[in-house]
Amino acid sequence: MSTDQSELKPAESSATPRPQPSGSGAGRQRALQAELTELAEVVGPGPLVDLLLERAFQLNATDIHLDPTADGLRVRLRVDGLLHDVLRLPTALRSNVVSRVKLLAGMDITERRHAQDGHISNSALKHERDVRVGSSPSIYGERLVLRLMPDASAFTKLDELGLDDDQSEILLKQLRQPYGMLLTVGPVGSGKSTTSYSCVHLLNEPDRSVTTIEDPVERRVEGINQIQVEPKIGFGFPEALRGVLRMDPNIMMVGEIRDPETAHIAARAGLTGVLVISSLHANDAISSIDVLREFGIPPMFIADSVNCIVSQRLLRKVCPQSHETYHPDGAECELLGLNYEEAENIELVRGVPAEVNFHTGYAGRTAIFEVLPIDEELRKSIRRGASQGDLRELAISKGMQTLEMSARKKVLAGETTTEEMLRVLMST
C-alpha cells in the first residue's frame, strides 16, 4: 500500500486587511472555521458575509446554507455535492447576518412569514458572479439558501466532461445534426446545465443564430442571444419558445422542459428545422422516453424529434493529494466484474481523509454518462409503444454504455471509488 498525503498550514486571520487562504487552494474546513469564527468576533455582519461569499467561490462551493437553530445560526457549504459545517454563529448575530444577505439580494427584510427570492450580482475574484437567494420561514427564524452561479468565464469543454472516447464521438456526431432534439437528463445537481452549455459553446459560430431560454440565465455567453423567463409576469418557457421560433433560430437551448406545453413546442421546433438542446428530469436515458409520453407527446413525435439522449450523474473524485492504493476484496471484485486473477493485478485508489479534502478523501467531481443516439430501429420501437425494459434491452444490445458501466470504468481507472459509485447510483 502506498500513501501520498499533503498537509494544510493554519490560516492566518485578521479583520483588516482580509485574511488570505493558505494551504492548497482556498484553505479547508478547519482553517475556514477558525478564520470565520475569529472574524465574527471582531467585525460586523457585512465583512463576515463578504468573506463567506469569497471563500465559498474559492472553494468551488455550489450553495451556502444559513439554517437557524435554537441557539444561533448554522452555516454550511455544499462542496462536491455534500454539505459541510463551517461556522456556528450565536443568536445575537443571527438576525444581522440574515438581514445583511437579504439587503444584498434586494429582498424585503421586514417580511419573515413568507418565502422570498432574491438575487445578488457581485464582483467576486475579479469575475462577475451571480448569487440566487431563497428564504423560507422555520420554527427558529428565517432560513436562507444561496445558490452560487458558475463563473461565466470558466467553460467546461466537451472533452473535459468525463465522456469516454466512444461517447464523445457519438455526441459530436449528434451535434452536427441540423435539427431535432438533444436531451440531457438526470436529477437536480447532476451537471445537466454544464453539459448543455458545453454543447452550445461548441455550436456557437458566427453563421448560426443561437438562443437560450433559461430560468435563470446561469452564464453570460458572448455571441448568443440569452433570454430569462419571468413566470411572475406571464413570460414562461412556452411564451419565450413561441417568441424565439419567430426569430429565425438555428439552435435553441431550453433550460428545462418542465411541463407538457413546453415539451410539445420543443418537439415541434425539433421537427421544423431547429436544433433544440434541453434538459429533463429523468432517472436515465430510456426513462426519459416515458417522461415525454407522460407529457402527452405522441410516440410518433417523440420518435421523429428526439435525436439523442444523454443521461448523467456526478461522482466525487479521489483526492489527488491525499490517497492510497489497494487491491479489491471479494465484494468489490463482484461489483466490478473482476475475477480473482484480475484482482491480484489491479490496484484501486481511495482517498485518505485530510484537511486538504475536507476530511472526505475526495476533491472535485467528474461525470458518468449514458449516451443514447436514436437510430431507426429505436424509432420504430418507440412508435409502437415498446416498454422501458424492451427499449433498454435494445439500446444495450446496440452498444449503449449504462451509467453503471461508466461508473465501473471510472473506479478501475482510479478516478473514484466503489463507495462513491454505490452512493450515487443507489440513491437514484
UniProtKB/TrEMBL annotation:
Cellular component GO terms, alphabetical: plasma membrane
Record keyword Nucleotide-binding present: yes
Compositionally biased region (Polar residues): 13-23
Keywords on record: ATP-binding, Nucleotide-binding
Domain Bacterial type II secretion system protein E span(s) in chain numbering: 48-423
InterPro entries: P-loop_NTPase, T2SS/T4SS_dom
One MF term in the entry's GO annotations: ATP binding
CDD domains, per the entry: PulE-GspE-like
Biased composition (Basic and acidic residues): 1-10
SUPFAM superfamilies xref list: P-loop containing nucleoside triphosphate hydrolases (SSF52540)
Protein name: Type II secretion system protein E
Entry similarity comment: Belongs to the GSP E family.
Gene source species: Stratiformator vulcanicus
Region of interest (Disordered), ranges: 1-30
